[in-house]
Amino acid sequence: MQTMSTTTTTTPRESQIPPGDDRALRILAKSVFRELKSSGHSRSDIVGFTNALLELVTTDYNKDGETAV
Predict the structure, then answer these.
(1) Number of C-alpha atoms within 13 angstroms, CB side, residue 29?
(2) Gap between the terminal Cα atoms of the chain
(3) For FRET with 4, which of 11, 26, 27, 28 sits at 20 to 30 Å CA-CA?
(4) Tens digits of per-residue pLDDT, 35-60?
(5) pLDDT-based confidence at residue 12 (cuts at 50, 70, 90)
(6) pTM higher than 0.70, yes or no?
(7) Is residue 54 domain-resident?
(8) What is the pLDDT of residues 21-32, one digit of tens each?
(9) Phi and psi of 16, rounded to 5°?
(10) Residue 55 to residues 3, 17, 29, 31, 47, Cα–Cα distance (Å)
(11) What's the rounded Cα separation, in Å, for the pair 13 and 19?
């Protein structure tokens, strides 16, 4: 019996948010913030989360050869 091999490649997903329309991102940020607060996380925890997220974005931009904003 032969085994079929498939190769998958991942490509960066394009944003489904129209350029210039940051409303969806603000809603997402507010939802995450509320969830963290309601789960008992402190302001310091939330700031740490935010910093970690910014580091990931910066690392990703630098890896792609883009300049971080």
Answers:
(1) 8
(2) 54
(3) 11
(4) 999 999 999 999 999 999 999 999 98
(5) low
(6) no
(7) yes
(8) 788 889 999 999
(9) -95, 5
(10) 42, 22, 16, 21, 12
(11) 15
Contacts 24+ apart (CB under 8 A), 7-14: none
Count of domains forming the chain: 1
pLDDT of 24: 87
SS3 track for 22-47: CHHHHHHHHHHHHHHHHCCCCHHHHH
**Residue 47 resides in a domain:** yes
Which residue range is the domain that position 57 belongs to? 42-69
Confidence grade of residue 61 (pLDDT, cut at 50, 70, 90): confident
Question: Residue 55, SS3?
Answer: helix
